[in-house]
Design goal:
Layout lengths: L21 E3 L6 E5 L9 H10 L5
Antiparallel strand pairs: 1-2
């Protein structure tokens, strides 16, 4: 099972950065895995996981 198999309601993932500079997380300001040049909402791995838990599909 890949991470794309999970319910990602309305979430488009930005491209992964190959190296610094990294974009800041919009919630905690820590570095993310995404390039600084990406325009949009970026989350660090911890905040991304917490957001996924909050918005997970219930079934």
């Amino acid at each position: 099972m890949s991470e794309d198999d999970y319910c990602l309601i309305g979430s488009a993932r930005p491209p992964r950065a190959e190296g610094p500079p990294y974009a800041e997380c919009v919630l905690c300001r820590k570095p993310t895995e995404y390039p600084e040049s990406y325009k949009g909402i970026t989350l660090c791995p911890v905040c991304e996981w917490q957001e996924a838990q909050r918005t997970s599909c219930s079934g």
